[in-house]
Amino acid sequence: MVRKLPIYITMLLFFAVGLQANTVDVKPQVEFTAQPSWVKTVDLAKMPTQIEKPMHYRLFDRQINTEDNFGYFLRSRYKFTDSAGVQDNASIRIRFNPAFETLTFHKVHVFRGDELVQSVGKEQLKIINAEDEQQSNLYSGEYEALILLKDIRVGDELEYSYTRYGQNPVFNGNFGHFASFGWGVDIDKVTFSLQVETARKLQVKATRDSLQPVIKSAEKSTTYSIEVLNNKKIIADSDMPSWYTPYPYVQFSQYQDWAQLKAWANGLFENTQVTDKGLQSYITHLQSMDKHAALNEAIRFTQEDIRYLGLELGVNSHLPRSPDDVFKHRYGDCKDKALLLSVLLDAVDIKASPMLVSSVERAEISSYLPTHQAFNHVINRIEYNGSYYFVDATMSYQGRDIETLYQPDFGKGLLIDESKTTVIDATPTKRNSTVLIEEDLFSASYFSPVVWRIKTTMQGADAESFRYRFATQGIDKIANDYANYYANSYPSLEVENAMQVADDPVSNTVVVEEYYSVSDYWYINEKNEAEFGFYANYPHDYTKLPKSVRRSSPLHLNFPIDIKHVVSFHLPEDIDFSRQAFDEKVSSEYIQYHSQLRYDKKRLTLTNQYRSLASYVPKADVAKHISNLKKVNELNGFWGMVTNVVERPIDEQFDAMLNKIKQSAQQTGD
């Protein structure tokens, strides 16, 4: 039932083990005990006359006490109102990290009417490994307490409660928490209570005035309480920006400002000592190169020769491993790689400060109270030749020159260095991401196969994406996928020559060439009219309408996107299509689209060009933006017809040209 905010779902996902991890060699023990004495009993709200299906949620109560080893108590009660609810919710799953947390259940009760029919104990409890990120080479050391309930029927009510104790020692006792008050279900009563020592000064931020906590101060402790009756469900729109959450919350943070948080973060990246002889030798090698070459080599080595592996185990989960260890073992996660790259470039007098960022919150991190929970990733900000470059050492198959490699945009980040600078702009000045597709379709007659040549030139992000795909799948798999994609529209498609790929990693450019023929490209109808059509529709992968058109939230845009798709259709004879020519533009502060059709000497050319100008569209402008998308999507192709078609001898000059094109393609392949 609980839907946590993205910022603390991912809070433990980016820092791997630094020192010796306190891993758990045996399954941890989970007990059933009485609830803590500091927990206050919360009464149920009156059951409404209208109940929800397939589940009706009656109570969601959370209570935290930082004085009792950061105890987190949760009590939940809900009613199974449909068989679908029984099927999907007749189990309890609680995740915890035994390296620094303990979990204790208090009660698991099933009620049928007013009668308690089950009181589940330890005999139905299973402890299972919760490593669900293994495919991404992430290992957290977490476990899951699982209770599979028996004999659950429609109409039963389940109530359970537990307390989780402990905090990762890497936070040095500093407290931060996001209390969510929004889910995709109605809840009769939602309560939250936080008890802290009086000396622990907290900042509080509520996204709704109605969620401002009631504060009661005593001599030694302060309590923050929030209660919401009839908490209404929130139906989230599709295609929201990752940083946007429609779910209200209250944030608590012990950090008084970003400078205090930076002081904590700086302490994590202090281990820059190099003692490993192999690493020392590699640094000497870098120092023998000119500075520009050394910079590019250090980035390449960290990205390619240090494999990505996140061992997020134990109490040191937020501390990077030493550069010696990362170099010696040839693996590391984002923080390990960032620290190593910083050390390598410092050795050649290039400053490459690690920077904490969020791949989810991006620039919105500055809208939160200062908290370590805002970040889930580490990159480097490199100062070189008077410019800043943002390099992600976990990326792979990038270009081989810092001037051309694609730089991801994380919006803002917390700089790890000796300066007083805290949260800064992390938006690259260069984005370097373009795609140019040039297609030529040659038709010798209305009855002979059409020869189809496609040339795709990719720079920046798209070149790197293709380079990775090429390395992991191979050219045969890619070529087969491409041919099958086109064959969906043209089943008679034949491959005339093998796909050709030219890669220039210095300019970060990849060029792909394809050659096909289509035997039934023309459709001759009963009136001897030849119908045809062609598409310059690659930009339309980015202009599809969202599933949620009536919106209450901003709309995500893929950014940056810069695509030009040109299709030239060479006709068998000179038939004037100049009256069908057009030049249409659709522009706003979010997108630019230009569609142009021209006719010149047996050739029809359709050019569609699309650029995204922003990463999202604000809610107020979404309706107008969707209207623009509809206009854009009407301009993805051209359909025409030639009347009075009869089979004529093939133009010998045109046929010779087609043969020359085929021969050229075959020679290139050889």
Can you lay out the helices and strands and say which pair or pack?
Blueprint: H1 6-9, E1 31-32, E2 55-65, E3 71-80, H2 83-89, E4 91-96, E5 102-112, E6 115-119, E7 125-129, E8 138-139, E9 143-148, E10 157-165, E11 176-180, E12 187-197, E13 203-206, E14 214-217, E15 221-231, E16 249-253, H3 258-268, H4 277-287, H5 291-305, E17 307-308, E18 310-311, H6 323-329, E19 331-332, H7 334-346, E20 351-357, E21 377-384, E22 387-391, E23 412-415, E24 423-425, E25 433-443, E26 450-460, H8 461-473, H9 475-487, E27 493-504, E28 509-518, E29 523-524, E30 530-535, E31 555-556, E32 562-570, E33 582-587, E34 591-599, E35 603-612, E36 616-617, H10 622-633, E37 637-642, H11 652-669
Parallel strand pairs: 1-5, 2-12, 8-18, 17-19, 25-32
Antiparallel strand pairs: 2-3, 3-10, 4-9, 5-6, 5-10, 7-9, 11-16, 12-15, 13-16, 14-15, 20-21, 20-23, 21-22, 23-24, 25-26, 26-28, 27-28, 29-30, 30-37, 31-36, 32-35, 33-34, 34-35
